[in-house]
Amino acid sequence: VGRSGLGEFEQRVLLTIHHLQGQGYAVSIADELERLSGRKVTLGAVYATVDRLEKKGLVSSRLGDPTPERGGRAKRFYRLTTPGVLALSAAQEAQSRMWAGVPPLGAPA
Amino acid sequence: MRYDPGFQAAMRGTRARKMAPAATMTGSAAMETGWTDLGGDLRRLLGGDHSSGNASTRNIQASVSEAAEAADIQQGAVKGKWTTKRLRAETDRLRAERKRLLAEAKQRASERKAAVSVEPPRLGQFLICLFVPADRQAERLGDFEEMLRTLWVPRFGLWGGRVLYTAHAIRSAGAIVRIAAVAMLIDRVKGVLGF
Fold first, then answer.
1. Cα–Cα distance, B85 to B141 (Å, whole number)
2. Is 0.90 exceeded by the ipTM?
3. Which label site among A9, A105, B144, B181 has the fewest CB atoms less than 10 Å from its CB?
4. How remote is the C-alpha of B9 from its chain's centroid?
5. ∠ CA A59-B135-B180 to the nearest 5 degrees?
6. Nearest-CA neighbor of B152 among B104, B193, B96, B114?
7. CB contact under 8 A, A43 and B138
């Protein structure tokens, strides 16, 4: 992973944030990521990743309204920035290029 | 007392006649509405003598009963005949309804109890506050509390939820410490190499 490149987990988190359309906060991102990938995701991993993505300028955040089930504390919603969208589409193109030359996966010979 | 729809229909007919204008009644009926009329109505509707009922009388009686019952059903007074089959079906339905309501009440009570008694563990809160920057502490505590109330306590119970809260706080803090340590190491290496 280069300085501007995206790691696998970062890509997944970015995709999930994009999927949640600006309504994603740490808990919902972890839930959605777990549902989509079928793997256990801890809150700590999500925090570390979104913090890193925010420092890279790929996501932005805003504070929402406080809710009672959170002890009256607000949620921090994340959404993709323009560089985030570009990075995600670049990652998708790279994946597509890599898969383009690969023969169809069948039964092992 | 036995339910007799024919009699009720007769009563309704009499009441309707009482309400009608006097011009529509004949002779003494216009002068003295009431019980004398009721006898005539009953005889007419029920086919005169009950004990000697012939086929046409029974037909009339049946049609009057059906009409009265239909009217009662329409008015919501009597909801169809209570046959044994229907009674059993109704009993089963009511039992199922009671069971569902009891389960709902129990669920609500446990949720209320959990909502009231769930307090995040102090150690977990302390760890979060220790390792998370001050401007992010509130939402992190909120996220953990939401997970505690909505996921961990309902699934693993009060103590299980509290243990999981602390474990996740430690793991979260561990990740933060690890990242900070790696960042510090990279900075040291950069400093040594002169970047």
1. 58
2. no
3. A105
4. 36
5. 75
6. B114
7. no
Hey, what amino acid is at B46?
L
| Count of CA atoms in the C-beta half-sphere (13 A) of B191 | 6
Contacts of B168 in chain A (CB under 8 A): 42-44
Q: Give the range among B34-38, B111-115, B187-191 with minimum mean pLDDT.
A: B34-38
Distance, in Å, from the CA atom of B61 to the CA atom of B50, rounded to the nearest integer, reads 10
Other CB atoms within 10 Å distance of the CB of residue B145 = 21
- Closest among A52, A58, A55, A64 to A24, alpha carbons compared: A64
Which residues of B are less than 8 Å from A24 in CB distance?
none
Query: Hey, what are A48's tokens?
Result: 């570390």
Query: A76 and B179 in contact by Cβ < 8 A?
Result: no
Instruction: State the DSSP string of chain A.
Output: --SSS--HHHHHHHHHHHHTTT-B-HHHHHHHHHHHH-S---HHHHHHHHHHHHHHTSEEEEEEEEEGGGTSEEEEEEEE-HHHHHHHHHHHHHHHHHHHTSPPP-S--
Does B183 touch chain A if contact means CB atoms closer than 8 Å?
no
How many beta-carbon pairs under 8 angstroms link A with B?
62
For residues A60 and A81, is the Cβ–Cβ distance under 8 A?
A: yes
Q: What does DSSP assign to residue B151?
A: I
pLDDT in tens, B121-169: 999 899 888 888 888 888 889 999 988 888 888 888 888 888 999 988 8
Tokens, residue B153 = 């306590």
Residues contacting residue B112 through CB under 8 Å, at least 6 positions apart: none
Q: Which residue has the tokens 């696998």?
A: A8
> The tokens of A50 are what?
């979104």
